[in-house]
């Protein structure tokens, strides 16, 4: 199995180019099956979640060509409407295909989705919303059978602002005659990106980025060439890495507004963060004063996908930090691995108390989910001695080989 071997203690200097956002590209790939014409996505990172989604689309009959970071999708032959368990369990985003498959084939059979082991991750809000649209749904033997012969536009209220459920309902209603209103929507930038993408294909959707999205049904959608938004979580990960290690790092191709909550936290440390259009420059002298309290919230609050990384930063900050994880019930698993490196973390339910230590000591740790794995790499970058991060296939789901960017920044890291 692949692993990262890191010798910590080096500052980071240089530039990192941020690629398209994983959590945008995945729903855009699902949305591509809403047309038989060619769809092209640019600046897509080589990450395994995109590979898995492409495998699912090919299983439906799509023809997909990848060259460098462009993905060309031809769905004209995609005539299947079933996603088998061995593919669906690969990633959470298989559930996004429910909506687009229904819009394309009027029926769908999808196995329960997989994804990072960070909580129960039910799909009750997806199902309730689809039923509001008159879609018949049966859950049987680990599969969800859907039929949308009697689908009708509706005014749907989500019990909570689920990103995936919002995206699924947008894609399920694009062809439903009349006006569908989705309330209590997620407001993440990836939702706005999906609206922009579908409208570029000829859909009539407005309101993404607010809690109310309105979808006017249209007859059909056409092909499109599209560049997804930059990955705000990858960008945030490198900002936190630099804040911890010290140094001067410039991120290229970022949207600072998408990580304003992190930038505001970093501005409370001795880091200097300069923003210039689609670039962010961070200067840090290393070990920071602890951040008093970090609470993960729905966008535009502090993102749950940066919680593990900011926790790694707090383990070597001066003082004590309280981290509250409000979105996923078991997203503190990585704390146990950080403690193997000498971190002082006490977990009480959704609250983690992190007492900063002078330094972490290198050791062997195991990644158990995507963002937790990234946080272990960050810890290894500041730990004294050698850190070995194992099971890095979790990290490869959402980061192009981290060692390539980090080596360019001067880190001592090797991928075996
Ligand atoms: C998306 O997951 C992202 N994944 C996650 O990123 C991200 O952490 C999450 O949104 C929150 O921002 C993709 O976009 C592929 P949710 P999603 O539905 O859609 C509960 C990463 O590291 N819920 O907004 O699955 C759920 O349990 C990944 O890149 C229900 O109860 O998240 C959670 O507590 C990890 N019932 C909360 O809502 C439902 O039917 C938010 O989940 C759906 C969700």
Structural features, described:
By secondary structure, the chain is α/β, with parallel strands linked by helices. The chain is built from 13 helices and 24 strands. It has helices spanning 22-31, 48-59, 85-88, 96-105, 124-132, 163-173, 189-200, 232-245, 260-266, 307-315, 334-340, 370-382, 402-408; strands at residues 3-7, 12-17, 38-41, 63-67, 70-74, 82-83, 107-111, 136-140, 143-147, 155-157, 179-183, 204-206, 212-216, 224-226, 247-252, 272-276, 279-284, 293-295, 320-324, 344-348, 351-355, 364-366, 386-390, 412-415. Strands 22-23-1-24 form a 4-stranded mixed beta sheet. It has a 4-stranded mixed beta sheet with strand order 2-15-17-16. A hairpin with a 2-residue loop joins strand 16 and strand 17. The longest helix is centred in the middle third of the chain and has 14 residues, at 232-245. The model has no long low-confidence stretch (mean pLDDT 95). The structure holds ligand EPZ.
List keywords for this structure.
30% helix, four-stranded mixed sheet, elongated, alpha/beta, binds ligand EPZ, 416 residues
């Amino acid at each position: 199995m692949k692993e990262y071997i890191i010798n910590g203690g080096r500052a980071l200097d240089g530039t990192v180019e941020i690629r398209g956002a994983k959590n945008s590209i995945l729903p855009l790939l699902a949305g591509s099956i809403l047309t038989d014409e060619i769809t092209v996505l640019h600046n897509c990172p080589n990450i395994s979640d995109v590979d898995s989604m492409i495998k699912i689309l090919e299983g439906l009959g799509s023809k997909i060509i990848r060259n460098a970071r462009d993905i060309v999708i031809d769905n004209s032959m995609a005539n299947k409407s079933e996603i088998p368990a061995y593919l669906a369990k690969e990633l959470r985003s298989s559930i996004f295909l429910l909506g687009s498959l229904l819009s394309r084939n009027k029926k769908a059979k999808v196995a329960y989705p997989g994804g990072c082991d960070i909580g129960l991750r039910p799909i009750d809000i997806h199902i309730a919303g689809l039923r509001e649209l008159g879609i018949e749904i049966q859950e049987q033997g680990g599969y969800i059978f859907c039929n949308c012969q009697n689908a009708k536009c509706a005014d749907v209220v989500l019990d909570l602002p689920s990103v995936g459920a919002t995206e699924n309902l947008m894609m399920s209603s694009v062809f439903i005659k009349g006006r569908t209103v989705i309330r209590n929507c997620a407001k993440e930038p990836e939702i706005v990106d999906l609206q922009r993408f579908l409208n570029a294909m000829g859909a009539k959707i407005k309101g993404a980025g607010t809690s109310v999205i309105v979808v006017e049904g249209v007859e059909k959608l056409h092909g499109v060439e599209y560049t997804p938004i930059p990955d705000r979580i990858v960008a945030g990960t490198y900002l936190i890495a630099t804040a911890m290690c010290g140094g001067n790092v410039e991120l290229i191709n970022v949207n600072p507004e998408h990580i304003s909550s992190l930038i505001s936290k970093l501005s409370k440390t001795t880091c200097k963060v300069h923003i210039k259009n689609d670039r962010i420059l961070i200067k840090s002298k290393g070990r920071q004063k602890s951040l008093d309290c970090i609470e993960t919230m729905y966008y535009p609050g502090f993102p749950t996908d940066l919680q593990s990384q900011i926790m790694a930063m707090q383990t070597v900050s001066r003082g004590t930090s309280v981290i509250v994880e409000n979105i996923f019930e078991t997203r503190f698993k990585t704390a146990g691995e950080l403690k193997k490196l000498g971190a002082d973390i006490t977990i009480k339910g959704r609250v983690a108390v992190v007492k900063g230590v002078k330094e972490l000591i290198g050791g062997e740790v195991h990644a158990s989910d995507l963002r937790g794995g990234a946080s272990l790499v960050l810890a290894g970058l500041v730990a004294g001695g050698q850190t070995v991060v194992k099971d890095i296939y979790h990290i490869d789901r959402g980061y192009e080989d981290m060692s390539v960017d980090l080596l360019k920044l001067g880190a001592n890291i090797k991928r075996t």
